[in-house]
Amino acid sequence: MEEKELSELLANVKIDPSLTSRISQMDEFKLPELMVLKTDVEAQLEAYFSVLEEQGIGMDSPLVTPDGYPRSDVDVLQITMIRKNVNMLKNDLNRLLQKSHVLLNQHFDNMNVQTRQRTSDNGGDSDDRPIQYTIPFAFISEVVPGSPSDKADIQVDDKLISIGSIHAANHSKLQNIQMAVIKNEDKPLPVRLLRDGQILTTSLTPSRDWDGRGLLGCRIQEV
């Protein structure tokens, strides 16, 4: 391979230096910065998976022929470098999620303290049962077949009233949904929906254990 071709290949498969720099600083990030970084890392991983898919290659597909020679039908060097980067980014993503979980717990603990404080300041009983919200704040615009949302019988055009402890009064432009979903990966979340004028309750378990991407497999848009 000529030097120019190798240089172009390296440029196409290397991790964005700005992303690498931010990953190295993640321990100093606050929760909103971590959420943005998570999205960017996942986008980089998706880009790599798309390249592998174009070549008909997975992370474990053999790169040599039965007699031990490098395969000629795929770009072995490119795939090897991409696989290395994918494994590195997966490790970074796991570390990022662990830090996010810690900050999420702190975030929701602070929200609960503030709620109790407001209730106390208003002369209420902080031990009262939580308010059952009935006002939708978002709607479901897409549900992927076989996804966690599909299994929870969530349908397109359903109006979202609450998911876990997130509702119309605290969703913060839907950002808190993402936080709640990450915090509760592989744990059931109670969901209240408005469908055809009726309020329905279901249980949604965010998970990566399905054939698609993401933890929910649905698209949520603010009303």
UniProtKB/TrEMBL annotation:
Pfam families: Nas2_N, PDZ. Residues 127-184 form the PDZ domain. This is Probable 26S proteasome regulatory subunit p27. Keywords: Chaperone. Residues 32-108 form the Nas2 N-terminal domain. GO terms for biological process: proteasome regulatory particle assembly. One of its GO terms (cellular component) is cytoplasm. InterPro entries: Nas2_N (IPR040815), PDZ (IPR001478), PDZ_sf (IPR036034), PSMD9 (IPR035269). It comes from Saccharomyces arboricola (strain H-6 / AS 2.3317 / CBS 10644) (Yeast). It comes from the Eukaryota.
